[in-house]
User: Fold this.
Amino acid sequence: MNILAMDTSNQLLGVAIVKDGVTLGEHVMHGHRDHSVRLLPAIEQLMKETKTTPADLDRIVVGQGPGSYTGVRISMATAKTMAWALGIDVIGVSSLEALAHQGELFSGYVCPFFDARRGQVYTALYASNSDSFEQTEEIVNPLFSDWLEQLREKGEKILFLSPDIEMYRSMIIEVLGEQAVIPESAIHYARPSVLAQIGAERKADDMHQIVPNYVRMTEAESNWLKQQEQQK
Amino acid sequence: MKTSELILAIETSCDETAAAVIEGGRIIRSNIVASQIESHKRFGGVVPEIASRHHVEQITLVIEEAIQQAGIQKEELDAIAVTQGPGLIGALLVGVNAAKALAFSIGKPLIGVHHIAGHIYANRLEQEFEFPLLALVVSGGHTELVLMKEHGSFEVIGETRDDAAGEAYDKVARTLQLPYPGGPRIDKLAAEGEQSIDFPRAWLEPESYDFSFSGLKSAVINTLHNAKQKGETFAPEDVAASFQASVVDVLVGKTIRAAEAFGAKQVIVAGGVAANRGLRASLEEVFADKQANLLIPPLALCTDNAAMIGAAASILYHQEKFADLSMNARASMPL
Ligand SMILES: [Zn+2]
Assistant:
């Protein structure tokens, strides 16, 4: 099975081609300003180098966010249109889950997160040990300080993974001390091949219905709801 | 290069998700528009983030429907066209990335189209162009006079220095507490009212073809405010009629002067405000005995749609002006 995986929901632009479980190639670029300019050229180049034609593809796996609203829409619009055009499956995978899987060899909790501005993050929690890896907390959008308090009560070691780790490193250590494990390496960036690997097993989504997981409603909608509440 | 090329066009610059198949630049094989008006109504205007979210929900559905209604297979397409700008950046990005994905997947050339070129070329779906041609483009975001001497060449001879005509309509509508979208409501009210209030006409410098509507908008707001303080009221239909008369006078006055100065053979009215009955009636009257032939497209082609993008793309297709896969959406973009 030939899989094309892509994610542009955060700073990283990632594209991978995975054939029968073997990663033929990956393309990763940092900097979220021009995902729209780079995504299709990156796909084209990678497919050329791996001698894969669009007709060879069997499924497309796309990072569904959360992250930048505009960013996640770029890969989602690309993925679902390619899936439609080629008549193949599209599978959405949480971008947090793809990042968390980089901590698969860790024993304890794995906490992936993305900065969501104003002290907030997009995050979730996974429990990892030698024979299982499962999600224990759904994707949420809390103040990071509140979230850390909640994690402290878990009592166990927690591995933090985030491209925004430097913004929050001191806060994490302040609240969790020795309980926190923060790797120093490139492991904070989700590899698109991991996305492909997760999506390889999943049931396909409806290519027309699949949308990004924004987690939050739009500001206009939440303000409107508040107004309605006040008028009651 | 064949003349009856089939182009699939996509338009997502504002609050309509649209796709169309156009044959030879002039024949509409399909024209699908998924309007979001209901979603934005309660906010009193288009909310960009909500528009972008809807585009992602609708995009493959409208493309599929456009192909199906055209009665073709996507492999029969000769090119994929898309509105590159100007417009809401988040909204444009959905269409641009979908178009790139489709062009790449089926191995067809990609064409980036200027939204205003689309509005002008909507007319070519009705009648062949004759040059020199003058286009009055009036919409929520645009008020421009564009001179065309040949296909694909656009010279902006006048544009708004502040608000677009459609913007002024929306603001005045809000002041009159009319529901969104306000433009058509003012047009309707105006037909029932009298031009009893003398609002200013911004002619600017005598030789200028530029427009300005912010002074008029303020005049309307101030007049209503002062009246209210004195305990007086104006009938909303009279306010609408007087406001519309001022807008229409300036639009028509500058258009006719430009048409004569440049010897236009055709005068095209394009954009959402072209649906305005007051504007249509006045233009028809003024141009009835003039040399230039006045063309106003049917309502469905005045408002945003993808058929017009396909029509404009046909010219670029024959000029072989193709985009590559690094094409980006552009919120503002020269014509
Ligand atoms: Zn428009």
Observations:
- Residues B 115, 119, 139, 271, 304 surround zinc ion (CB under 6 Å).
- The mean pLDDT of chain B is 94.
